[in-house]
Write a structure and sequence with these properties.
With 217 residues, this protein is an alpha/beta fold. The strands form two sheets. Strands 2-3-1-4-8 form a five-stranded parallel sheet, with helices on both faces. It is globular, with a radius of gyration of 17 Å. It contains nine helices and eight strands. It has helices at residues 15-26, 33-42, 46-57, 63-76, 92-104, 119-127, 168-182, 186-190, 204-216; strands spanning 4-8, 29-32, 83-86, 111-116, 129-132, 138-140, 160-161, 195-199. Bound molecules: adenosine-5'-diphosphate and adenosine monophosphate (AMP). Adenosine monophosphate binds next to helix 2 and helix 3.
Length: 217
């Protein structure tokens, strides 16, 4: 069955980590607007040039830009591949846009999984986060170190990087944006009985097990 799911939660909740595991285990595709925007910034496209300063400040990029990115990705994807929305939608306007985009591509939303986490833990998670510069695999200084120090478990790469916006000050702004603009979209999905809550404070593997249970229905 082709599934379309949203992983919702504040920065550092584990959306990217869990998306990666679902991609590997279920052949779904991760659609991360944050990753798409970072690629656009790196390539200095018009979208990247507009988004760069907003992202560095921890504020939200315009609804139109991110919804257009999602629309284009879904247009390029085969109908047989399920989608995991990671970091999108983040506002009510994006949630409404996603309904239209999914309908346009003959898809429907199956689950909204909210990863619940203590805010205090998020700063530590985000300031300790790093990724492989070659394949993008995610790591953490304390919670998920590579098996061999300095070598990516997945691709064997030796270059790692940290995000420009993963500092304590920006994290606070990103959390405030989440509380003000993203958490309020949950009732929109609650009304449609689409929301399942998963304890995002548990170990990474246990969070995956809990998500898989939701997906099995
Ligand atoms: P998000 O995509 O929601 O911003 P990430 O998946 O990048 O969050 O996770 C943030 C950081 O926390 C990463 O360094 C990741 O390795 C780590 N992490 C993710 N899930 C857990 C967990 N359940 N327990 C401890 N650390 C975690
Ligand atoms: P993320 O990788 O999800 O943590 O996103 C990093 C940054 O990209 C955010 O702080 C925003 O500036 C921007 N961004 C990512 N996704 C969205 C979105 N759906 N709406 C608005 N801004 C976004």
């Amino acid at each position: 069955m082709v599934m379309n799911i949203i992983l919702l939660g504040p920065p550092g909740a584990g959306k990217g980590t869990q998306s990666g595991l679902l991609v590997t285990g279920h052949g779904m595709r991760q659609l991360s607007t944050g990753d798409m925007l970072r690629a656009a910034v790196k390539a200095q496209t018009p979208v990247g040039l507009r988004a760069k300063a907003v992202m560095e400040a921890g504020e939200l990029v315009s609804d139109e830009i991110v919804s257009d990115l999602i629309d284009a990705e879904l247009a390029a994807m085969g109908a047989e591949t399920g989608a995991i929305f990671d970091g999108y939608p983040r506002t009510q306007a994006q949630a409404v846009a996603l309904d239209d985009i999914l309908a346009k591509h003959g898809r429907q939303l199956d689950h909204v999984i909210e990863l619940t986490v203590d805010e205090d833990a998020l700063v530590e998670r985000i300031t300790g986060r790093f990724t492989c510069g070659t394949c993008g695999e995610g790591y953490h200084d304390r919670f998920k170190q590579p098996a061999v120090e300095g070598t990516c478990d997945k691709c064997g790469g030796h270059e790692f990087k940290r995000r420009a916006d993963d500092n304590e000050e920006t994290v606070r702004t990103r959390m405030a944006e989440y509380r003000a603009k993203t958490a309020p979209i949950l009732p929109y999905y609650d009304e449609r009985k689409l929301v399942s809550r998963v304890d995002g404070m548990a170990d990474i593997a246990l969070v995956t097990t809990a998500i898989e249970k939701v997906l099995r229905g």
